Amino acid sequence: MSQRGAYHHGDLRAALVAAALDIVSERGVAGLSVAEAARRTGVSTAAPYRHFPSRTALLSAAATQSGRQLLEEMRAACDEVRKRLGTADHADPHFAVEALAATARVYVIFAVAHGAAFELILADELQDHPDAERREVSRQIMDLLLWPAVTLTGEPAAATQFLWRFTAVVHGYAYLPGSGFIRGHAVGADFMASQAADVIRTLARAAIEGSSANHGSEPATPATE
């Protein structure tokens, strides 16, 4: 692709973001350079700076794209739960349990498939970068996880603690295949995702019981799948 052709089609920005995601997937966040993204896109090393004033800006745009894809897949998983259960009631604990299990499954599969491009969504070096679009995507991801957590626990503070456990579980299963702990075992992303979903179901049901005990009522335990 020539520089002129890229601008003619109006897709240079998207092409640079795609190249950045490829580079991050291959080399990690630290391996991204604007020059390499330009080379892969077929433009001069100066061309990217018309769209991204810095490497951090390109990194943030790539994180936004990666986060948006994760969000879309998580939403699709929740929609499948709605269809399967025949309800969209956010106050239904059974719906909340299954929504969290479904998002856990997506989370693990996405992390395994995209590697460092997934880590980019949470990269420390982007936390202080003023990118409203990236922060909005991150907020929507958190909201998608927060509503079922609040349904299960009954209050925002307890929901936050539950989401810490959720994150620990999904990250643990996502990175387990790359560790030496399960060397010699033929397990893939789908197996790990299913295991993570099962653990989240257990934690979610325990959260319902804990919330009911704190409020002095009988737990509304969801039916077993």
Account of the protein in words:
The chain is mainly alpha-helical and 225 residues long. The protein contains nine helices and no strands. Helix 4 packs across helix 5 and helix 5 runs parallel beside helix 8. The chain is globular. The termini are far apart.
Distance between the termini: 51 Å
Number of helices: 9
Q: How much strand content do the residues show?
A: under 5%
Give the biggest beta sheet.
Answer: none
Which word captures the global form?
globular
User: What is the radius of gyration computed over CA atoms, rounded to a whole number of angstroms?
Assistant: 20 Å
Write the element-wise H/E pattern from the N-terminal end onward.
Answer: HHHHHHHHH
Low-pLDDT stretches are 1-9
Helix content: 55-70%
Mean pLDDT: 86
Question: How many strand elements?
Answer: 0
> Structural class, please?
mainly alpha
Summarize the structure.
This protein is mostly helical and 225 residues long. The chain contains 9 helices and no strands.
Please name the defining characteristics of this protein.
225 residues; mainly alpha; 69% helix; disordered N terminus
Helix/strand layout:
Layout: H1 3-9, H2 12-27, H3 34-41, H4 55-85, H5 93-114, H6 116-119, H7 132-153, H8 156-175, H9 189-214
